[in-house]
Description:
Blueprint: H1 5-24, E1 33-37, H2 43-56, E2 61-65, H3 74-82, E3 87-91, H4 97-100, H5 103-122, E4 128-132, H6 134-139, H7 145-154, E5 161-165, H8 171-176, E6 179-182
Parallel strand pairs: 1-5, 1-6, 2-3, 2-4, 4-5
Amino acid sequence: MTVDPDRxxxxxxxxxxxxxxxxxxxxxxxxxxIVHTGKGKGKSSxxxxxxxxxxxxxxxxxxxxxxxxxxDCGERDLINAxxxxxxxxxxxxxxxxxxxxxxTRDIEMAQAAxxxxxxxIRDPSNKMVLLDEINIAIRYDYVDIxxxxxxxxxxxxxxxxxVLTGRNASDDLIEIADLVTEMELVxxxxxxxIKAQIGVEY
Length: 202
């Protein structure tokens, strides 16, 4: 396909002018409530990408893992080894519910994770707090969605970003969120008999 360079340059100049006009109206900054949900892979991966961006920008941040405590986690190992001065990392879960098989214990651990989460979010020096797999804890009624929503609305510092991951995000959480991404499952190697692999899933 042949494209005339002058025509292309004119088209791009018009596009840039339109974009600059839109961007001129976007002046507000705020701490965002960010939700990653859906059946597809990448919810936690994308969230950790933002945590590493905070680390790269020398912004204090924190992670609370609600479910994945029993699993290896490359992100946790790297952060604890290299960036613990700028990113606190708390693994509060003990594994997936079908592995723990102890609802009472799961609830206790989830409640402890939520208390730690509130403590970290209340600290205005934390610019981002990742609540990894909290949506699972909410779905199983380990953590009260009404309390989560009320806390985020009433107590989250104005400039603190909070990222909440996990399948089946509550409609109430989606309602108050500023940014919601649903990961759509198109194809997954697990269905072809391939188990989770280091460097991809953990």
